[in-house]
């Protein structure tokens, strides 16, 4: 089986959005293919911030994106 390098993938196959969501221990980064909030928009309250990624940043690992775009400040009750 031939393995493709991650740089050889089409831009359409890569996640388009970098999203900070509310996690159990604070904000957590995620990469999403689409801003689809699901049935009844149940995910919307969990999203703290999102960014549409330019094509040249879609291949970057989650850790690099998290350093480049830090989490928003979240007030803890």
TrEMBL record:
Q: What is this protein called?
A: Uncharacterized protein
Organism, scientific name: Bradyrhizobium xenonodulans
Q: What is the lineage of its organism?
A: Bacteria, Pseudomonadati, Pseudomonadota, Alphaproteobacteria, Hyphomicrobiales
């Amino acid at each position: 089986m031939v393995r493709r390098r991650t740089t050889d993938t089409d831009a359409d196959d890569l996640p388009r959005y970098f999203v900070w969501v509310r996690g159990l221990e604070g904000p957590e980064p995620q990469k999403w293919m689409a801003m689809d909030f699901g049935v009844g928009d149940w995910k919307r309250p969990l999203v703290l911030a999102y960014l549409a990624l330019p094509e040249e940043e879609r291949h970057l690992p989650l850790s690099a994106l998290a350093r480049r775009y830090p989490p928003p400040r979240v007030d803890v009750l």
